[in-house]
Amino acid sequence: MGLLLVSCGIVAFAQSGGSKGLVSGTVVDNDDNSPVMQATVQILAVKDSSMVTGDVTNNDGRFALSVRPGKYLLKVSFVGYTPTFQSVTLTKAKPRVSLGTIKLHSDAIMLEGAVVVAQAPEVTASEDTLVYNSSAYRVPEGSALEELVKKLPGAEIDDDGKITINGKEINKIMIDGKEFFADDPNIAMKNLPVNIIDKIRAYEKQSDMARMTGVDDGEEETVLDLTVKPGMNKGWMGNVDVAAGTKDRYSGKAMVNYFQGKKQFTAIGSLNNVNDNSFPGGGGGFRKGNNGLTAIKMFGINFATEREKLKTEGSVNFNYKDADIVSKQASETFVSSESSSFKNAMDHSRNKTTNFVGDAYIEWKPDTMTTFIFRPRISYGKTDNSTGQNSYTFGQDPGYSTDELFGTDDLTSLVPEEDIVNTVLKNTLKKGDDLTAGGSVIVNRRLGKAGRNITFRGKYNYTNSSSEQFSTSRTDYFQKTPEERLEILNRYITTPTKTSDYSAKLTYSEPIFKGGFLQFSYNFQYKHSTTDNSTFDMGNEWTVNDGVNGDIQGVYNADLSKSAAYNYYNHQMDVTFRWVREKMSLNAGVSFQPQKSDLSYKKGELDTMTVRNVFNFTPTFDFRYKFSKTSQLRLRYRGKAAQPDMVDLLPISDNTDPLNIQNGNPGLKPTFTNELRAEYNFFNTDKQRGMFSFFRYQNVLNDISNRRVYDPQTGGYVTTPENINGNWNLMGMVGTNTALRNKKYTINTFTRANYQNMISYISDKTVVTDTDKNTTKRLSLGERLRGTYRNDWWEFSLNGSLDYTHSRNSYQESNNMDTYQFAYGASTNVRLPWNMSISTDLSQNSRRGYTDSSMNTDELIWNAQISQDFLKGNAATVSIQFYDILRNQSNISRTISAAMRQDTEYNAIYSYCMVHFIYRLNLFGGKGAAKGGPGMGGPRGGFGGPPHRRF
Hints:
4% of the residues lie in helices and 63% in strands. By secondary structure, the protein is mainly beta. The longest helix is centred in the N-terminal third of the chain and has 13 residues, at 2-14.
């Protein structure tokens, strides 16, 4: 994009009649020729050195400045480098001057191995990219990328490992612009050591198709693009980390990297039982424990190489996970304006998964006019999951905690029998495997005139999966007659499924005026799938273990068995207008989608064939305006239609689970989602101050909500999908980053707000009307504040956070809630002269406003680590990590919707201690290999100050 902007600047100059000239060039690091982004470029008057004009370099280190003919002095500067000056003369005869490559030299002062440099800015903005400097953040020794990302302004990592930056989910990790293990960012997050990373760039990467055609297709993905530190990208680097701890905790990891020019190779292997794929991290402040106890084994290889005409990238990885999860749940489901259903449950599951994934990216340019892209992918997965569940359902609030209810042998001694609806004891074992293979190919051909091209894309995916499930269930209905009170359901179920998905797309782009383009495309998609569910009823004495041992001779249940064959045909025609100027770009288009679906469905005595024909209409709008290289506004709108599942349209009832009967609804309408996004950011390089913001509004017309009718006699529900209007949400977030005195003090703030209007049908009556709609309005406010002082050897931070939820329920005012979660604390790390590092963090975490008093807790969490480097070049490290020293951490979460609220507590790894031994072997080709801490080309892990070269 930087090259495109420079080209646009040149074209704009050519059309201006020659009143101004143009000065252009590229700024690089003198040591490794890597581009220096965000460098300040100024054109000064010769007589008094006053600034005539200026700008900053883009992500490729390029700049282009418009100025009238004359004699000037060009100044290029950036923190950590010596400013460079160069004379520039423009004449009417030669109004354009290309300065070529301008090299910046480090201004670091080397004193007995110590490094004294200016403070690197924590975050900068360049066009639509946020750039984070790794050296501005300190993390404990041996930390993986995840620990660094947690410190980035606007970054969040949830309990499932999902990463978001300013509200956008990260789908991919890249290294120096090349994909790293394709679509699995957790491999990099858990395994890449922080000490090799120079910068992290966060931006939206266009799809292959959009990059080829230049027109946004709505399939962009937010990525983190890592830059390897200078001097560490010219050779082999090895890393071994082994650890043992209390409570039988262990961790081991080995990694080998090779970087040379445009070649990359990485091999990673790890195993541990600390709920992580690699290094356990350490420090970093409070975070909720991961759910369950998990042991992991993984191995992966990633490679990338680039030649003049051919670029290849690929990866293979194997992963095995064994999770032992115990949970306690207490929930309230609203069944009418005056009553609720209450449920307490204890679950214990053991989930074993094995996965293998192989993928590649091949890009070939046989000439300057033609590009081929091929992406093959294959994956295989195997699951072995067992679950035991014990639950109690009540018609009134039992008034006891889950532990108290399950701690007695006689439930009626605590709760009157007339308030008990049912008790359920269920055991399930499910085994399955899944094979997926497919790929995509793109061919793009430029047709002479700039902007005129034709593009073809073909896709194919095949999936073959199968599963078998063994289950036993014993349900006691306390409100039924003695003859109907006990229900035993023992079943064996098999479900093989096959799916094939084909698509072909042809796109043509035509320039219609300067900077204006029209694009026409046609896409055809065909999808075919078959599934065959066979259910067998087993005897009352049959157990899950009997099924595992081969006893599956049950009675075929024709009423519950079902088979289906599904065909889907989609024709999509797109017309898009694109307008590009020097400071703005606009994409506006519309998509027309005639679709046909047919479903052949058999269940019991039902044998039906249903056909659906629909026509979807989807508008899109994307506008960008660049106030400068470091300030940008972006507005986006996208409308999207979606069709109900074909099975939901059938007039059938599925009572496989007597407590959750599913009905179809032939009257379901398509849904339409409107989404509007706005983004604005700016950054002042000289003052190291910046602000980024993101806003999103979304509403769904004819949204599909489940109408649930409660049966007070059984505690079960009959669920029917219904269209409903009124579901919408508005979200906004603003982050700021400010450097203070000497740029050693920084303040980061991150503010977010989210308002949701959620509607659902709730009733205990057979006939449900609009009066049975329940509306939940929820406002969530969050604030993160951090102040940091940092010098060459010490960092100290104060931080605080507040999360407030305001929830109002139209059905039951007693369920209105105002809850708070707030935390405050401090963290510090220091690198001592004898190669010892110490880090620690202390935080107070509190919850308030919960109805259950056991949820209103105060937890003082203290973590610490001490590490010592030794051997030649500090190639080895021994560290001791202490987690939750005061043993106060818990793992509790709350879920709220228009229909219910639920509190859940999981088992997790809390207080323990680990001893690590880390050894590094580095064979770098650059001179950076001989400098800095432990042979890593600079102080490691942030403990020894910023790197000695560029930031």
